[in-house]
Sequence to fold (298 residues):
Amino acid sequence: MATSKRLTLTPGGEAADIVKGSIFFIGNATVLIRYAGYTILTDPTFIHMHEQVSIGYGMHATRLTNPAMEIHQLPPLDLVVLSHFHGDHFDQVAERELDKALPIVTTNEATKELRERGFANAHPLDTWSSMTIGKGEISLRITALPGRHGPPLSELVLPEVMGSMLEFESSSDKVLFRIYISGDTLVIDDLREIPRRYPDIDLGLLHLGGTRVLGIMVTMDGKQGVDAMQIVDPALAIPIHYNDYDVFKSPLSDFQREVTEAGLEHRVHYLSHGQEYTFEVSLDEGNPNELYEPSSSR
Fold:
């Protein structure tokens, strides 16, 4: 799996903690991933309840929840991973208040949109291409994975979307922890290639919601979420992108019911807005050794 690009960041003053990491759920598909000295923000949306974002062609989505934190409360960020350019994933608050020099790893289409808005450090990835970010002794490899934001031919009217694989690697090229982010996709055949290339995925963040636009489902509902989980096969899955916008028609309870029926409760962890999931990595095996309950504290 060839790496096409490289970016080097300046390490902080303290040694990177490669034993513990965390996932903090801000809302929708916006999470803070902190591990091995990296602080990563995904799909930033910070509008409030009752406010709207554009989803293209004169259509809008209304937010039903508030984010768990305001954009000015974010810690210093190393980069953003953006699955695609839609208003509920990169909203007007992000456009206005994020640092325009912040590295953003995303699709080719989103890169063009971002650069037109003054974000000069956007890095496009084609499917299966990678970018390696270096920071001290630990590197982060981000690989763009297959995704399709709707049924066949939907790409004619919907944004290009990517899933992502985040691999944290030691100086000896040992993978310490691997995170899969689905992006806004439906279950498609191309997803089956992911576990063939990555047979050991520690954590999966699944975009659910059963989003419907003009009656057409364009993100996974509860059943498809379980199907994707069984296909990609992460050791643990955390559902995100649910219950936040009025275009979401499949509530989290749909996924919970499907998980129970499939007997997969032990492999799913649920987070509410403002909760944090903390993991511990075994340095001997490179897999989670002990998994903690979520905390509302940061």
User: Anything to note?
Assistant: Residues 146 and 189 are 9 Å apart (CA to CA). The longest strand covers residues 20-27. The helical segments are 92-97, 108-116, 193-197, 222-232, 252-262.
